[in-house]
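Support reply, case 0932

Customer input (verbatim):
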Amino acid sequence: MKKSVAKNYIYNVAYQILLMILPLITTPYISRVLGAEGIGIYSYTISVTTYFILFGTLGIAIYAQREVAYVQDSTEKRSKVFWEIIILRFITLMISMIVFYITYVSHGEYKVYYKILLLEIFANCFDISCFFQGLEEFKKIIGRNLIVKIISIICIFIFIKSENDVGKYLLIYALSTTAGNLSLWFYLPKYLTKVKIKDLNIAKHIKPTLALFIPQIATQIYTVLDKVMIGSIINDKAEVGFYEQSQKIIKLILTIITSLGTVMLPRIANKFANGKKEEIKENIMNSFKFVYFLSIPMIFGILIVSKTFIPMFLGKGYEKSTIITCVISPILLMIGLSNVIGTQFLLPTKQQKQYTISVIVGAIVNLIFNFLLIPKFMSIGAAVATVLAETSVTVIQFYYIRKYFDIKQIIIEIKNYLISGIIMFIIILLMNKLSYSLNIIKLISQIVVGIVVYFGSLFILKDKYTNNLLKRIINIFSNTNKNT
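Our regenerated output:
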């Protein structure tokens, strides 16, 4: 049952990018056709719907992934866990749908859009990706969704033609989620055995899922509520659009960093169940290095190329998104670190209380600074509040793991990546003085030079993690060539 962490990471990155690929490919087109206001309405209604999905799913996704990981080697036990959890989630989502209908669908300015998004909530009843994540079968997840996402992209270019097509855009979004979730059910017979209804104990999962539900609510405050607050406090929905597009760019990059957490959660959970504490520590330390290795150059890169990239990518009228993207870029490091501590260590090792406290504090920090900054600085204020919130979460989580890890050593590990990132930043900054015939040439040149300088600097500094990573890549290619 054990799968390669490297392969699972690649599969999960591919899957997460796949979930983001639709908006990434279509963003330049959609941002121009729907405009900032249309994007703002789309983002606002989706954000509201997300809360009902959150309340409907409780903390089941992470809980299910962990519980399946604990019993991944027993077909009978994992079958029982699967049906108990899936039935519980179906019941809670049905309740959430009823409340959503009464609150938003039956009346209000955007009721026509919320009626479409009822399907989005219903689609989550059939999301079983957490089951395959618990089994470390990440390849299965991406396989079935690929065709669905490609069809969605095609539909957007065919049916979205004017600023009045926000409803069609939401419908395509909801239908793709539904089709993607249902497609995974075709794999289930291979992994499950029959379970008698009388043997199911659904009630026992309520308390532990609620324990994980609290931190999820807190997390959503500073990942979704910011857009809701911008839309509620500021009359101009374009501000939500500016913020939404910046978030999409950052989240796509963040996906590459945090996907390791989804892969490592079931792996660490399984090792914890088998008492392999030293292996867990080694895995976590490597994860910290991985976050530094990726996040530092990405932050510096965003600060330099966003002025060229964003207007070219989003089109005219989104100049403010350039500023927001730069302001919010530090969360790549903060969320990366908190993902290692929270998702990869605290949750798999059953330290939900510490994890919950950290994200609740982050939610409070975000809420306070949103109220203080959004009225005056609008979407930029929300970006600052998000950075402060994520930083507070990371600091508190570091405090909680001080008994298990040498915090000073973890911080020192950033040295080589920070030095290499600064050198890269300075050289690319100097390239701005050169003249370019086209912005695309300038952008590609900066990215290529940045990558070469960053890796070159790490090589000169003799960074062990980078050297080991390069050796593994070379081995993968050499083995592939031998097989062919």
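We compared this against your earlier run and they match. Two observations from our side: DSSP finds 19 helices and no strands in the chain. Residues 414-484 form one domain. Please reopen the case if you see a mismatch on your end.
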